[in-house]
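Work Package 4 report. The design task specified in the project plan requires that, given a folded chain encoded as structure tokens, an amino acid be chosen for each position. We show below one input record used in the internal validation round.
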């Protein structure tokens, strides 16, 4: 096992850095300064650099949840902290990963070492450090379900702190780090609790169908992982081939009464009852019903296989993409009376 680096190397701060390769949409933009951060010591050193103090600081993980609409006047910190450590308890594995670890690579690592629990979250783009910010989720499992603690730099006190789930205030695709803590914390490592008493989660229709197509009735964690990868590969474009940030809009959550009224008008509405009595609607279905699937405006558009995904076909801009997003939001609001919100951070 390796451990997150604690070396005291100074960051290599570069000027006028092209960011097209650091965001999965591939949008062209330039950062006034940027540095790869490989340790907590390097993070502190970068923040102490007088050039960094002259403008805003933006933290990038894998760039998979960002829409760049302009050049960035400040500094981009490219989080590259690596390392994984495992602590065993009688009933669980506590697995800590550096913020710069690939999320999908981390999921693969846990399964390869006999620690199931993250398989439903396979193939989600991005890094481990970015995952709690969004409270990523897929196929019935959210990050908060496996979360233990995280380590972060508190910019208000310039000290490293440990935050638990209650501190992080997780919600649906939401957390402290998207609200009150948005500009206060920089995550450096995340620890997950993976119970030894593993239970499969296969209730989602696409996942159930994929397993059934292989004659699998009692799947292992590895078989669920393979099924999730197969489903996501069919539905979502590879960012290395078509610029995208995965699901662009959150699935809206509405009161039960609103959902019931919509079902009278639209009986095939895809929806999921929630534990608190509310109902989650499938944003992709709403967008598809408004005729946007496969639509292309210039070099940006809506993916032809999944209306929830906006894409950059090459040469598009973040501003053009956000104009398309606004058009989609207006159409969904007009037809269904439902507001849908983008997931990515717009810079």
């Amino acid at each position: 096992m390796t451990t997150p680096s604690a070396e005291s190397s100074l960051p290599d701060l570069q000027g006028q850095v092209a960011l097209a390769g650091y965001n999965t949409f591939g949008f062209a933009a330039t950062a006034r300064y940027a540095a790869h951060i490989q340790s907590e010591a390097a993070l502190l050193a970068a923040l102490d650099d007088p050039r960094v103090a002259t403008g805003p600081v933006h933290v990038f993980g894998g760039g998979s949840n960002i829409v760049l609409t302009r050049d960035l006047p400040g500094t981009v910190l490219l989080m590259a902290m690596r390392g994984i450590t495992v602590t065993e308890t009688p009933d669980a594995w506590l697995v800590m990963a550096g913020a710069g670890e690939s999320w999908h690579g981390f999921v693969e690592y846990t399964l390869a070492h006999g620690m199931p629990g993250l398989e439903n979250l396979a193939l989600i783009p991005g890094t481990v450090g970015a995952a709690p910010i969004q409270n990523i989720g897929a196929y019935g499992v959210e990050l908060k379900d496996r979360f233990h603690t995280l380590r972060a730099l508190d910019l208000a006190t310039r000290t490293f702190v440990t935050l638990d789930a209650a501190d992080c205030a997780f919600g649906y695709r939401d957390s402290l780090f998207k609200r009150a803590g948005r500009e206060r914390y920089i995550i450096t490592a995340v620890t997950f609790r993976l119970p030894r008493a593993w239970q499969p989660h296969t209730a989602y229709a696409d996942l159930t169908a994929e397993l059934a197509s292989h004659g699998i009735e009692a799947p292992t964690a590895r078989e669920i992982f393979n099924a999730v990868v197969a489903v996501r590969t069919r539905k979502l474009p590879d960012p290395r081939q078509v610029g995208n940030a995965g699901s662009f809009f959150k699935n809206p959550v509405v009161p039960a009464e609103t959902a019931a009224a919509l079902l009278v008008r639209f009986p095939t509405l895809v929806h999921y009852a929630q534990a608190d009595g509310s109902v989650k609607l499938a944003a992709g279905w709403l967008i598809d019903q408004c005729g946007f699937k496969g639509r292309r405006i210039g070099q940006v558009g809506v993916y032809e296989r999944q209306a929830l995904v906006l894409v950059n076909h090459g040469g598009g801009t973040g501003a053009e993409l956000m104009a398309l997003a606004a058009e989609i939001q207006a159409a969904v609001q007009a037809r269904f009376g439902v507001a849908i919100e983008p997931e990515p951070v717009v810079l």
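The first helix runs from residue 40 to 48. Validation will be extended to a larger panel in the next phase.
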